[in-house]
Amino acid sequence: ERGGNNSFTHEALTLKYKLDNQFELVFVVGFQKILTLTYVDKLIDDVHKEFRDKYRNEFQQKGALGLLNGTFDFKDDFMRLLRDAEESSKVRAPTVMKTFEQSLKSQKTVKCMIETRGEKPKEKVKNKKNKGSKKDGTEAVAAPSKASAGDKQLSAAGEKEELTKDEILQKNREEFFRRHMKAGEKSRSPKPDAQKEKGKKPRVWDLGNSNAKVLDYSNSATNGSAESCPVEEFDPDMALGDKNREPGRLYDLEYESDDEAEEEKVVQNPSKASVKKKKGGLGGMFGMLKGLVGSKSLTREDMDPVLEKMKDHLIAKNVAAEIAVQLCESVAKKLEGKVMGTFTTVTSTVKQALQEALVQILQPQRRVDVLRDVMDAQRHRRPYVVTFCGVNGVGKSTNLAKISFWLIENGFSVLIAACDTFRAGAVEQLRTHTRRLNALHPPESHGGRTMVQLYEKGYGKDAAGIAMEAISYARNQGFDVVLVDTAGRMQDNAPLMTALAKLIAVNAPDLVLFVGEALVGNEAVDQLVKFNKALADHSMAQTPRLIDGIVLTKFDTIDDKVGAAISMTYITSKPIVFVGTGQTYCDLRSLNAKAVVAALMKA
Amino acid sequence: AMAGGLEPHLEALRRELHGPAVLSVLIALIAVAVTFLIWRFVQSRRSSRKAVLLLGLCDAGKTLLFARLLSGRYRDTQTSITDSSAVYRVSRDKSTNVTLIDLPGHESLRLQFLERFKAAARAIVFVVDSVAFQKEVKDVAEFLYQVLVDSTVLRNAPALLIACNKQDVTMAKSAKLIQQQLEKELNTLRVTRSAAPTSLDGSATGGPAQLGKKGKDFDFSQLPMKVEFVECSARGSKGEEGEADLEGLEKWLVKVA
């Protein structure tokens, strides 16, 4: 489902790949990351075309027998193509380089420099404008050389552009000389400097009858210089706008303007669509029928409108915008060139592919089975440690209580570690939960064992230290599970993220759960990326402990805008372990991928 | 005069309609319809379940097994990302064919492909890597559990063969050991899975299906389908050039087809 980009880097190797969806082939080229080979894309395309044409018969056969029985002796062809590609890339390189002597620019400017002294400052200014940001140009001689050095990196096309600019430059200089002779003023050179200093000073026409050509500044290459910009008049009335507003009052947002803009857009689109339809006419109807029957391969143009609509639909369902874009990109890559069966429209194919991709995203790499792992830890006589992290106010403590209830129902004893030493009332909250849970599951019904207990050290202490003590206490007392509650923190808050990373790195919990609410939109991407990054940066180990699972909370507040689930699993590739659907102890569910995808794809 | 001319024609027509000829036409039509329906039913029953699925974890050897069964030759294989299907002639004298379908074992793909092909399955071959089994016990059991509690699989009850592959390696575990370990692991799994929180739309994750009998420890004989264990080696003991050791598998396929 991540087929959007076509390259993959792993350690020292980079892999570039190309998909052929018609015959279901994948072409992969691997090379060392440090080499920047320019011919790789071309090589892949050539290999693809040649392989496909050569073995077309084997692919046409239905079933895998063709692939099994055919011999694919492609090695010689491949070596030939590789050699061709390498040579073609070598040929191109030398034409880019051009030495300083050969460059016309250097000759011209030096010559001009020697000719007239008064032109020096003007030269500087003009050169600056021509080259843009490439040089600082304190010395005019140094400037052209630097420019040529910059030129060397440009491609041949860029070179040509510079030359034409130089011709324009030359022309302007000639005009300027003429002007100089006519007016006969010697103080022309300081004038440009003075003019530049003053900024938007109105232009002074010191020439009586001047050539129209001279006054035509439209062709000059002096982008952004002060003289060529027409002066704008500052009209205070215009700038302030509405005369009748009270000074200092803050007006509300006007909503009518938004609707109007939308209406305009909506009106425009139907008119465009109707125009298109009119053009189609009879051909359009036949085209529709032709599209239904017969096998045609999907092209990008066919899929683009459908994908646009699907992307907007996903975004409307609260999927993060960049993820919706990447998803649509990968679906497009997967379907490009695929041959559609009869009686399938483009829309249905794209929808099906998108649905499959979404289900694949939601069905994780490895299902996190908490009970199974707790049983394992029980056998090794050590507690199973779960850490909850997330931003402020997502429901960590509430869901921690729900999960401890579920664990108690399954016969495991729980120790709750109150590592939220910042928020007022955090410890009391957990104490109340502990009391309630013990009331629901009294020790008498579990063989005299207190099923849940709270380990707390008050406020203001170091969270990582409390967690460590809690774990050793649990080991001594024989608790099966330790649930560590941490304080909520924003992902941008570097010191707090460091503290969290330290807690996780030092205590090495068995499961790190990120608690996120289902209401979050594009923020989910940022939160998860920054949390994972902080955990990875501050860990000393070879393989840092990252987020292992996600708890999606406040699921009852969204009806079918379930896109946050997709955003979160896409970013981390980790499963959604629990879903919180309310505030009572029984409101804990597990994710049903098909139901969520159905809710997403529903119109 | 016109109306009078029409009347006797209409009378004749009406008499015709009530005559025996029409009745026979109607009966013929019904017979054709019924035959058609029966034929469709039989066809769908027969053709819908002609597939033998090759399932298993990644690197269990499914694709190589597939290649060996179909062509007899050894092939270098890559991790499958899509299914491969081909018609397999079960034995030389009988002309029954089954469609062998090799599904990818990768975690993110396996359930999707299982969904697509489970309805057409007449038999399932679950390939297990006997060498890495000790490390992968939990994953193998989890996948097997997911296959076994699937409602379609429970309904159709296709024959199940657990092929303990890679027997050519000396460290390979025997089929008996694998069976014992799987039974133990599945016993634990059915408790933990049914205790998991219920799914979002109300249906429990383990389904109302309970694997095996409640009170007793899990046993493969408690399943509604026939389960067999067989040892095989897709690579063959003589290396890449030699024949594969697939006798047990082929005999089972003959039985199932």
TrEMBL record, chain A:
Membrane topology: Peripheral membrane protein
SMART domains xref list: AAA, SRP54, SRP54_N
Biological source species: Pardalotus punctatus
Cellular component GO terms, alphabetical: signal recognition particle receptor complex
Residue ranges, compositional bias (Polar residues): 208-226
Subcellular location: Endoplasmic reticulum membrane
PANTHER family with a match to the protein in the record: SIGNAL RECOGNITION PARTICLE RECEPTOR SUBUNIT ALPHA (PTHR43134)
InterPro entries: AAA+_ATPase, Longin-like_dom_sf, P-loop_NTPase, Sig_recog_particle_rcpt_asu_N, Signal_recog_particl_SRP54_hlx, SRP/SRP_N, SRP54_GTPase_dom, SRP54_N_sf
Coiled-coil regions, chain positions: none
Protein's gene: Srpra
UniProt record similarity statement: Belongs to the GTP-binding SRP family.
SUPFAM superfamilies for the chain: Domain of the SRP/SRP receptor G-proteins, P-loop containing nucleoside triphosphate hydrolases, SNARE-like
Highest taxon in the source lineage: Eukaryota
Main subcellular localisation: endoplasmic reticulum
Comp. bias intervals (Basic and acidic residues): 114-124, 180-197
This protein's UniProt keywords: Endoplasmic reticulum, GTP-binding, Membrane, Nucleotide-binding, Receptor
Name by which UniProt lists this protein: SRPRA protein
Domain SRP54-type proteins GTP-binding, first and last residues per copy: 575-588
TrEMBL record, chain B:
Membrane topology: Single-pass membrane protein
GO annotation terms (biological process): Golgi to plasma membrane protein transport; intracellular protein transport; protein localization to Golgi apparatus
One GO CC annotation: endoplasmic reticulum membrane
Biological source species: Pardalotus punctatus (spotted pardalote)
Localization annotation: Endoplasmic reticulum membrane
The protein's name: Signal recognition particle receptor subunit beta
Transmembrane segments: 20-39
Family: Belongs to the SRP receptor beta subunit family.
Record keywords: Endoplasmic reticulum, GTP-binding, Membrane, Nucleotide-binding, Receptor, Transmembrane, Transmembrane helix
CDD domains: SR_beta
Primary location class: endoplasmic reticulum
UniProt-recorded Gene Ontology molecular function terms: GTP binding; GTPase activity
